Input
Amino acid sequence: MRQEPRCSQTSPYLCRMNEIKQLIREGHTAEAIRRLDAYLTDHPASDEAFFLRGNAYRKQGNSREALNNYLAAMELNPDSPAHSAYQSEIEILDFFDKNLYNQ
Output
């Protein structure tokens, strides 16, 4: 069982976001998405939560959901780092040779 780290941040928000970032880094993307879903239910204007959920979906290989979450973050905050993440994901998708799917 995964043990929760103790948070040294003074802000519960920072603790929660840092825990979610760690889950994503460690590959626990389903748990990160579950927590972000719950967080966004109560805080639908959190561009950081949409950005992190996009990162979790990207790590799972779910480009569609990643892009949708990056777009939501960008709508909430025009200065969001989701812009570069969105562009990177689009470039990756554009790179794939679609002809390889038909072999």
